[in-house]
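Take the subject:
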Amino acid sequence: MTDAHVKESDTLDPHLKDRLKESDRPKEGYVFCLACSHVLAHADDRLNIDGSHEHVFSNPHGFTHHFGCYREALGCAIEGPAVAADSWFPGYLWRLAMCADCGQHIGWLFEHDDHFYGLLLDKIQTG
């Protein structure tokens, strides 16, 4: 007696299989969590703050962070209270921004009269 295993790929309509492959592909222009590929933002939301999209700052604990600024990052979950201490942008309060899917720390939400997100460039990928 032989084991007969039928693969899902053998039973799918070829047209449906192609459409499924296309839907699994990252969409151009999106920003994804590097850990889980969850969509965080759109590249069109890139923003210059103090004349630059990218910033490099060190915190009081000696950790250096390289991040890009975005107008919105709806794929992030915001955690913790708004903090004024040690803000890299005078007048702005900051809160932690986590990937809403896997919980990875992905950056910060900076809030004042307006707001923006600083997403860590070593924790994101673009499609």
